[in-house]
Amino acid sequence: MDDPANARFSMNLKTWDGKIWLDSSVGVTQSAADxxxxxxxxxxxxxxxxxxxxxxxxxxxxxxxxxxxxxxETHFIKLFFVWFSANTNILSFSAGTLGPVVYGLGLRxxxxxxxxxxxxxxxxxxxxxxxxxxxxLRQLCASRYTFGYYGVMxxxxxxxxxEVGFCVLNNVLGGQALASIANISWTIGIIIISLISLxxxxxxxxxxxxxxxxxxxxxxxxxxxxxxxxxxxxxDRPAAPATVAQILNFxxxxxxxxxxxxxxSSDYTVYFHPxxxxxxxxxxxxxxxxxxxxxxxxxxxxAAISALSVPGWKAGYADGNVGGLVYAMLSPVGKFGKVLMxxxxxxxxxxxxxxxxxxxxxxxxxxxxxxxxxxxxxxxxSTALIILLSIVGQHKFYATLSNFLGIIGCWAxxxxxxxxxxxxxxxxxDFSLYDIQYWNVPSNLPLGVAALGASVLGFALVIPSxxxxxxxxxxxxxxxxxxxxxAFVVTALLxxxxxxxxxxxxxx
Length: 508
Prior knowledge:
Layout: H1 7-16, E1 20-23, E2 28-31, H2 37-45, H3 48-55, H4 77-87, H5 90-101, H6 107-121, H7 123-129, H8 131-135, H9 139-142, H10 144-147, H11 153-179, H12 186-203, H13 205-230, H14 244-259, H15 278-306, H16 311-316, H17 322-329, H18 336-346, H19 348-366, H20 375-392, H21 397-426, H22 449-462, H23 474-479, H24 483-506
Antiparallel strand pairs: 1-2
């Protein structure tokens, strides 16, 4: 993560500005000197409304590379608030409740697991966020240089599934929170949350950045008030000594919560100036993810344990209703608590907006001909799917959350390992070795057999190392869930010889 990247990359910044890249899937040739050409052509193709949306500042660009001359954003602090708002929400709070509720941990053990695993795993998305200013490529599109043009479709599908899953969880929590203060069903609450999230992601990065700069403020106020007025009710109930299995099982859940951000990290840094310090981007992302997540997950663990001793909290928390728990914590402030609950229910929109925005990038990378479709179209499609799934799965929250996060962590471990080894070992951390003019030319990209092979072969050990409600492998029975750790280490070790053979065979 060298700052100026290196001398070779520095010299190539200017040459990239005049290169031509080919969109082989749709027959578009675009000059980096005019990066908006394809975007304008696309909007003209889709008529007056598309042209009008462009003039209103709605971002249509999808995975088309951002030319060096268009990477001009220098307000880097925006990145901190993008991640801070996305993680300052009721979902972070609810993930913390899993420690005592699902895994039987005490408050001390829950908080130590939350602290350690978050501080460690947040390194991955923070690191990948530094790629955006250097390459001008969305994260999964950059992953073509590891998994290949066709091979990357597998990580794309898994990322889409992951983002859909997170959005469903957000919608359920937001819907619960709204229903706890208004005479509406969870379903109506889910639809309201989804439509607000859709507006933010539909407009694109300009509106998203503005929204994320502000969205965290009322949510922080909610949790400060909730903690302050209910502080006398917090208790730490005695718990049996934690086993290694309990700690690792909860750690796998915490890992999945954070690791999934890695596959979309650079989506939000592609417009930043390429000469920005990589450490600066890293630190803003790292703090933006870890600070709110650790704080709210620990608060969630404390509230869940205390709910067993406070009748009002226990009643509000019935059936795993996290929104009801927070509303019970706010009961001392009377009717003002309803206003705060509205803020809390809307907190998930900042997280959803990132998910639906990046799903568009993943879909275009998964199905290359869709590059000609304006990005915002995918926000509408994904929101419709998310609303449907949220309504169907709204009453199975805890089982869904714990299982989902554990599985997401495993595949993320393999993807992170392959990307890191490719960049740091085979490309020596040199961004100039990514020839951007071939970003969409299959014959000039790695075949991807090595990355997919290492990931798939690694799962021969990952599956026995997983511990889920529906399955516990023989290794996990003795150790606890170490799926993420095994996926990361085994994929990294296998990728080196497999990629070496692939390069020798194909020359790329």
